[in-house]
Amino acid sequence: MRVAIIGGSGHIGSYLTPRLVEAGHTVLSVSRSQRKPYVPHGAWNKVECVNLDRGAEEEAGTFGVKIRELDPDAVIDLIAYTLESTEALVEALRGRVQQFLHCGTIWVHGPAIEVPVTEEQPRKPFGDYGIRKAAIEQYLLNEARRNRFPATVLHPGHIVGPGWVPLTPAANFNPAVFADLASGKEIALPNLGRETVHHVHADDVAQAFMKAMANWSNAIGESFHVVSPAAISLAGYAEAVAGWYGKEALIRFLPWEQWRASVSEKEAKVTWDHIARSPNCSIRKAQRLLDYQPRYRSLEAVREAVAWLFANGVIQAQTIPNYLHCP
Predict the structure, then answer these.
(1) Are residues 257 and 222 in the same domain?
(2) Do residues 218 and 289 make contact, with C-beta atoms less than 8 angstroms apart?
(3) What is the dihedral of CA 123, 129, 131, 133, to 10 degrees?
(4) Is residue 181 a contact partner of residue 245, using CB atoms and an 8 Å limit?
(5) Is the pTM of this model over 0.85?
(6) With contact defined as beta carbons under 8 Å apart, do 108 and 123 qualify?
(7) Containing domain of residue 51, as a range?
(8) What are 21-79's pLDDT values in tens digits?
């Protein structure tokens, strides 16, 4: 199959693109500039790289046409963030592709009523990103079910992997909390630390896209959560990280407003965006219909990412023995 993957060298694409090549597909990686993938792989030698500036092409009204001219059997869109962008691409590809796979987000859900949250629960997103992605999901599923456009939507959680900072126990992206926990220093968490986050390893997301292609008859017209088997609480997350380095987590719990005043405005906003949702999503549907079987639990995925941060000097904890830098 000839597969065009839009955003093919990013977090997900770094794992998905080699998987596609190894499965025998002809792969076209479409991006504004061909950056190095996060994980090197010999399969990239067989990938056709296509340089397209999506923003500029969409402004000119030519992006969808240029994707269509690649003559793909399947299109995987990993970087669509507006309904208008997706609508234009769908119109250009209508009747021309066997499958269209869109990367969504678990943020299409707002705060949960019943957990774990299933795909069937009503959407009540908040915030610009979640609202926009929910609109895209609704549009694509409607096109699939009413107009037979072969769309599938996959909703990853907090994507983790070596090469970038994972969502931390403080529910933001300041890596200092990892160094503090590894050194046995006290950290502060908001409230009681019982809010949840739901990670997923980038390779498990890649696996889900492959399974959706392999089980296309079950996948078309459906959306699926793509997360680890279980969410984790902030406090439990912190305790686990400290334990990797032979430490006991020293946690001071602060009321939200007090905690908020102790960090930067940016960190506070990111944390609030995550704890206000406290995602905890079910993967039963993906397991049943796609045979999705995540390799990593949340803490296993994070541990690999944190080991990379220490090994590459992104974070340092002076008291850690060298043999513990790669847990």
Answers:
(1) no
(2) yes
(3) -70
(4) yes
(5) yes
(6) yes
(7) 2-159+199-226
(8) 999 999 999 998 877 889 889 999 999 999 999 999 999 999 999 999 999 999 999 99
